[in-house]
Design goal:
Blueprint (H helix, E strand, L loop, with lengths): L10 E4 L10 E7 L3 H8 E2 L10 E8 L6 E10 L10 E7 L3 H12 L3 E2 L4 H8 L5 H11 L4 H11 L4 H23 L9 H19 L2 H9 L1 E6 L6 H9 L17 E7 L2 E7 L9 H16 L2 E7 L6 H10 L4 E6 L18 E3 L8 H14 L13 H22 L4 H19 L5 H8 L7
Parallel strand pairs: 1-7, 8-10, 8-11, 11-12, 12-13
Antiparallel strand pairs: 1-2, 2-6, 3-4, 4-5, 5-6, 9-10
Helix pairs in contact: 4-5, 6-7, 6-14, 7-13, 13-14
Amino acid sequence: MSEIFATTGTIAAIATAIVPQQGSVGIVRVSGTEALAIARKLFHAPGKQVWDSHRILYGYIHHPQTQEMVDEALLLIMLAPRSYTREDVVEFQCHGGIIAVQQVLQLCLSQGARLAQPGEFTLRAFLNGRLDLTQAESITDLVGAQSPQAAQSALAGLQGKLASPIRQLRHQCLDILAEIEARIDFEDDLPPLDCNLIIAEIHRLRAEISRLLGTADQGELLRTGLKVAIVGRPNVGKSSLLNAWSQSDRAIVTDLPGTTRDVVESQLVVGGIPVQVLDTAGIRETVDQVEKIGVERSRRAAQFADLVLFAIDAARGWTEEDQEIYAQVQQRPLILVINKTDLAPPDTVTYPREIHPVVFTAAAQNQGIDHLEAAILTKVQAGKLQAADLDFAINQRQAAALLTAKTSLEQLEQTIEQDFPLDFWTIDLRGAIHALGEITGEEVTESVLERIFSRFCIGK
């Protein structure tokens, strides 16, 4: 049995991020049959405070042997089954920082608790029926959300908006299976199956699965975001564009070509999509060894970016250097950004007219940024990744299971059309049922659970 399945005993972990001089509260969470007993050994609540479930006590955490006070704290008690794990849970709400919470955690471990594995609190919630697997995965998505839309999508999953259609699909497959098996067991007592009706139902199920699969790319975009690289020759205003876009002075801006020597990053949100913007060094031939390294990193950033913003200077128009850079990036998804239009009217700028889309900006004057964002969203929507309108979205694991279910239903259609015996129908149908059950956790293997929960933080 793997470590993550060793879910017996009482577990403890720090449940909040611990950063020196950052955050006023640090929480140590304890779950299991001995949680309340450990709290009574470590926590002194003065006066006549009542140790009941869902109460917060005020007091002091002290060492049980030396009676030395460790921290002034609050204690939250949540007794089974009304807790996150459906076990007895206590939370020591200590002062923030590193020392206090670490000391309290060590005291809990010294009193018989063990350190929780990554995701073990949520794993216990799943195994105890508190959450299904889609809800558990939504929790880690919520913790890692990089935009309000990503958080809303995770909350929708946590509320069961993804699990509901999956369960409905599975129940409908089970209904079809029951009809088929009834004909196998009681063939002489029941009328024959209506094959056309069964096929029509399979078509409908496949269409619903396709609809759910259509959210996979959207979900990936919300979770990981879009990597955008600003490339171009030196002194076309790439750094000014980044500064205007991010409304900060992330990049150094001068009139000297080659000022940017390395890739400068900035995190933005555009239309609900997290965007990692990379301002790269100007691409040109140079003998400067440091600049050469920057130019090579620029080329690499453009190669691995989801979208390239190719910037040129409106005052100079399209140059031979621009043509050389364009030849290196034209196979990537690209938007041509003609910058410095405050120095030259857009209708006077020369550039290859086959390139599109084109956006005109004057970054130094903070002009054209809204048009740039609109062009990016149009580019995204052209790929059917309309993240801003997303309710919920499946992840890669769920997409793989849905694809298996869809394939099984397609094979079932072929089995019916080829007039195979009813026993063969049940094989493909059971495959679809099993795949759908893997998504919600109604049918799941130890290896799947280990892969999912190992990605969680320890305190969750």
